[in-house]
Structure formats: C-alpha cells, structure tokens
Write a structure and sequence with these properties.
Blueprint lengths: L1 H25 L8 H15 L8 H13 L7 H14 L7 H13 L8 H13 L8 H12 L7 E5 L4 E6 L13 E6 L3 E3 L2 E4 L4 E10 L8 E10 L9 E2 L2 H12 L16 E5 L8 E7 L9 E6 L3 E7 L33 E3 L16 E5 L8
Parallel strand pairs: 4-13, 10-14
Antiparallel strand pairs: 1-12, 2-3, 2-11, 3-6, 4-5, 5-12, 6-7, 7-10, 8-11, 9-14
Helix pairs in contact: 1-4, 1-7, 2-3, 2-4, 3-4, 5-6, 5-7, 6-7
Length: about 400
C-alpha cells in the first residue's frame, strides 16, 4: 500500500513538472513585453501561497516560490515561469486539477469545509498538524499535498465538468463588516459559502468557498434624513475549479431571505436583504467582467461580520467539480433543492438554509427554470430600518 502511494505521488509530481514546462513554453508569446505584468503575477502567486506580497527582486522571489513549491526551478523566462506557476496553482491541466483544487479536496475530506480565505501554505500546515501532529514545512509543497491526498483517499483526485442550473440558491456569510462609516470605494468585502454546493455527486464548491464583492461607491447619510448608499459589485463565487460562478440577488434568493427572516435566521447573525428591503428595480453595477451588483440605501446601514444573506446563480454555468467517491457520499446527496419545471421530474423539497445545496441530475430535464434574472438588484431601506 505504501509503495503504491509513493508511486502515485511521484507520478503526480512528474506530471506537474511536465505540465509546468509545457505551460511555460506556451504561456506568453512575448514574455518580456510587459514587466509590470510579471510583477503583478509575482504578487498574485505570493498572495495565493503566503498571503502577502514579498519584497525584493523578481528573480529572488521567483526562486523562493519555485523552491517552496517544487524543490527546483522551472525552465523558461521569468514571465513564462510566472504563467506556468499560476496555471499550476489555479487552473491545472486536463490530466491534473490545480493544486488549489486538490488542497480544497483534502480540507473538505477532513473538515467538510475549506478555508479559502487563508493562504495555501497555512492551510496545508494546519492540515498536516491536525492529521499527523507535525508540519512537513521545508519539503516541496506539491509533494506534501499529494502525500496528504494519498493518505486520505484511495483514488487520484480528478475534475469533471458539471452544469449548475440557473437560479440555484446559496447561503453566504459576511466575513467583513460593511458600512458607510467604515467602508470606502475599492474595498473588498469577503463572503463565504455556508454549505456545500454539490451537483450529481460532484463537489462544486465546499462550505467556506469565497465570493469577493467590491465596494463601488459609498455615500454617507446626510442631514434631514437623507439616506446613505452603498454600491457593491459581485465578482462571483470561486469554486474548486478555476471558473467563477456568476451570482446575483433575484426572486429565488429573495424568497430564501424572507423565509430565513421568518424563522429568525436560525441562530446566526442578522439576515441581510429582507424585511423592509425589496427589489426596486434592476441595475448592472460595474464594468464588463463583473457579473452583477447591488445597491443598498438606508439611514442606518451596517452589515456586521457574521451576517448572512442568500444569492442565486444568474444562469446555467459549467464548472469543474470533484467526483465524490462512493465512500464519501451521504444519503442526503439525493436531495433536490432546485425546483424542476416539468411534471415528469421528481418533486423537490423546499429550500432549506441549514442543508447543503445539492442538485440531482433529473432536474436538468427541463426547458427552463423560469426566466433567470440577468442583473443585480436595487435594495432600499427606509430611514427607520436597520439591518444590524
């Protein structure tokens, strides 16, 4: 058994090196054309691995990253190596999912959630310490990830494309406070998925997956009851795979918000987006590339960290997911939480905010789930309404 695991780890690492070399040779037609792009990629890589941007020259920083990841340097120019590392970390290949995909699977197997807001090195170190009592820091990160997976599951981790239906409702928790008094344009506000998103026994996004929103503009409350305003843009949910899941506030998520408010938020923080809030119109907030946004107005706007809200997918979208082995599947994975529109489809349960969002294949036998919303929503709070 141990020898088979060792062979599996060695084979996976060899594929990584081969993929890295291929990506480095094909990634950038003119790799020296934009030095600023290389600096930006270097910072992005360091943020993923360490959670900060290091100081020093590009060559020195790149050498440290390659040594920490692979225990060796990749071939190619600086820009090509940057591109290869980013592909390895976030995109992967047809044969090998990305390292972050695999790390997320390892976390989910152990804890049934991931810590997507933490850097990869910290997540890996904590996993090792929890499982073995000691970190293997100092060894190449790719070897450590593969070793963990070989210990946790029998089969190699693979990715398969799945389609998430339009109007799939998901529950999120705010990780950062949002208010006109503290927030400013350009700030990022993190929201984490509270429950797993599973399609046909394929794990799309574990609990803890991140959605980043950007504060587009802030207007503080004025005199004589002039309400404050906060405009947000959604960048989409980041699942295990590299594709973003486009989200918005629409009719289905509004229903879930109202239902959660009626039962008191089930012991969690304030539920945002219901009560006196209502969709007053539709507005696409943000440039091309930002899926949608929301406009919040009120005399007392303060969304505390820990508050929860609901959003829905803006349309059918195809993403890479982890096929859950039979040994890790549960009976609950047969729940249908997206309502099918055709009579011959199996009946669905009502949306339950305390359970995973799990979609069964039969619901795809439909013409449509109804016209999906394609933009964000405008929310308005009257002066007396506080969301905190």
């Amino acid at each position: 058994m141990q020898s088979m695991k060792a062979v599996r780890i060695a084979a996976a690492v060899m594929l990584v090196f081969m993929a890295g070399a291929c990506m480095a040779s094909e990634a950038v037609p003119d790799p020296e054309a934009n030095a600023g792009s290389s600096r930006q990629m270097m910072g992005q890589i360091e943020q993923i691995i360490y959670g900060y941007t290091a100081q020093g020259g590009l060559i020195e920083r790149l050498g440290k990253v390659e040594e920490d990841l692979f225990g060796r340097s990749l071939p190619g120019t600086i820009a090509e190596r940057h591109a290869a590392i980013l592909n390895f970390l976030e995109t992967g290949t047809d044969e090998q999912p990305s390292m972050m995909f695999k790390l997320g699977v390892a976390e989910w197997v152990v804890d049934k959630k991931i810590r997507a807001s933490e850097p990869a090195a910290k997540r890996l170190e904590d996993l090792e310490s929890n499982l073995t009592g000691a970190s293997r820091a100092g060894n190449p990160i790719v070897m450590r990830v593969e070793s963990l997976l070989a210990t946790l599951i029998m089969d190699p981790v693979t990715a398969t494309p799945v389609t998430i239906p339009a109007n799939t409702v998901m529950k999120f928790r705010f990780m950062d406070e949002l208010s006109p008094g503290k927030s400013k344009a350009g700030d990022s506000v993190r929201l984490e998925l509270t429950h797993d998103l599973i399609v046909n026994q394929n794990l799309v996004a574990p609990a803890g997956s991140l959605m980043i929103t950007e504060v587009r503009s802030v207007k503080r409350p004025g005199m004589f009851g002039v309400p404050g305003e906060v405009r947000l843009s959604f960048n989409g949910l980041k699942p295990l795979g590299p594709q973003r899941v486009p989200v918005l506030v629409g009719n289905e998520s509004q229903k879930a918000i109202k239902e959660a408010r009626q039962v008191g938020g089930r012991g969690e923080g304030a539920v945002i987006g219901a009560g006196a809030m209502s969709i007053a119109g539709a507005a696409l907030l943000g440039p091309v590339g930002l899926v949608s946004g929301v406009f919040i107005r009120g005399n007392s706007i303060k969304i505390a960290a820990g508050s929860v809200t609901f959003m829905q997918t803006s349309g059918d979208c195809t993403v890479s997911a982890y096929p859950i082995p039979i040994s890790l599947q549960t009976a609950d994975n047969n729940i249908v939480t997206v309502k099918p529109s055709q009579a011959e489809d199996p009946p669905s349960t009502s949306y339950n905010p305390d359970r995973d969002t799990i979609i069964k294949g039969d619901v795809f036998k439909r013409d449509t789930y109804g016209a999906p919303a394609t933009t964000g929503g405008d929310f308005e709070l009257p002066p007396e309404q506080s969301v905190n």
